[in-house]
Predict the structure.
Amino acid sequence: MAGLINDEDITSVRDRAKIEDVIGSYVALRNAGGGSLKGLCPFHDEKTPSFQVTPSRGFFYCFGCGEGGDVITFMQKIDNLSFAEAVERLADRVGIQLRYTEDSGHRPEPGLRMRLMEAHRQAAEFFAEQLSGPEALAGRQFLAERGFDRESAERFGVGFAPRAGRALKQHLQGRGFRDAELVAGGLIREGGYDFFRGRLLWPIRDSGKQVVGFGARRIFDDDRIPAKYINTPETALYKKSQVLYGLDLARQQIGKKSQAVIVEGYTDVMAAHVSGVDTAVASCGTAFGDDHARLLQRLMGNHDAFHGEVIFTFDGDAAGQAAALKVFSGDQNFIAQTYVAVEPTGLDPCDLRLQHGEAAVRELVARRVPLYRFVMNNVLSQYDLDRVDGRLSALRAAAPLVASIRDTGLVGGYARELAGLLGMDPEEVRHEVMRAASKTSRTTSRAAPSDQQEPVSQDRPAKDLPRLPEPRDRLLATERETAKLLVQAPHLFRPGWDGLSVADFTHPAYAAVFTSAEKALAQQETGDWIHRLAAAAEHDQIRTLIASLAVEPLPIQGEVEARFVVAHSSGLQLLTVMRQISELKSRLQRTNPVEAATKYNQMFSELVVLEARRKELQNRSLGALD
């Protein structure tokens, strides 16, 4: 693995990759005045533009769905990339050769990623051209037998690898690629022969539609490699646990519909898309795993913990049941609800389309059942429900399944459903489910007593993170405008942030922005202030809030002046003092001046000081606006 990307190179990528150009290649932007651009948000459906880009600050924010960040964040969200992958993608775009630390003992050759991406693009074109040649007749017959015509092959970029051992190598060498590059990309083997020979090929693209590898199907009986399917080996571009075939075609629809259909093979993906199931993807040469789950989770979004669905297509046989149980064990990786679409006859989507038409594929997905119910039915089928002891054993086996359902509002209904399946008293079943839930809770508590102290990550959001404030909340208007000034004009504050403290912010999210500003200033680092501020924030929610504050216009015309900052900082402190005065007056009313004379006099003295402070702040705030 490569080491960390050099910090200076990350900064260069941010500077060179103009956010308006990058986002403009995905979203139609128009001038919104004040140096900002607007467009329809690519992360949720909307008819009125609420997606705003501020090029001068290098940030975007959607006031409809709350997504926001810089150009790297945008690439991460739009193409479901990790931070490093997003930086590498942008570096390729603007022609920056990234430098890496040597912590891992391996430093990639500068510019290698760009060369590999170009080699794969040209290889995909070469393979696609070969499919029309006489040698590829068996490949065309394979596709035709499965109901795919030439148009479908072109749509999915299906190609053919010539049986000659060095055809691709010679083709790419003629275009300036070196053997070392082709070996590094998994296109040729160490001995100089092509990695794929005499096979039907599907290009595997990332969500940005860049070819990163290939999947190959055996079509000749004398193929030296007995495996029916082989894939590109692990390379700098291709990580099988992090790619999904068809994601380039399904990405936008998965985001819009909050649905992903997981099928098993390349032709299944083709059949699903041709049939109108445009959210279908497949894992490439490996089982569906945690990284795949996180990839889909990022794509579907996490604004609503129970919105959206991941649908697995399994056969109804023992292998399909085993696969469902395996998925169930990792179901906590999904934010969406998880379903199973089972074809009782054992047909996969490709054969189902071939034998019963495209409508049958759509119906397969429409007949989906909750994963837990599919698993529960299989569990119950293992017991003799005609016997009392069999029903009791089945209940004890199925109760933990019901108790593990994430949407606790559904547990009661599913417990009643289980009672109906078992023919048992609903109250007895409910009690067993509650006991199973309690047992699971105690086990989890013993296993991880310090969960609440674990650091927050993108993949494990904390339960106690502050909710983002409503931008139009009038009671928080002064806090929001002051927080915007902290983000947009920190240089206009006098030392000590003009007397502000974290206690002046009543909303925890705005308080966290102020804390981040204090931390970023104390670090005395160079570089763009807003990125330093975001880096100092502890949680992703606060980084998103900072992005929104960076692009949201201030309620003034022209340049921000220091007096505008003084008016808001003083106004916010004035609100704090007024709260303190109100609280102190309340305490004075509850205190007997005779029985607690000392305490009463002390509070009265404090009130006098606060009233003087109130007048001072009031005069300063009003004077700044004159």
User: Anything to note?
Assistant: The longest strand covers residues 211-218.
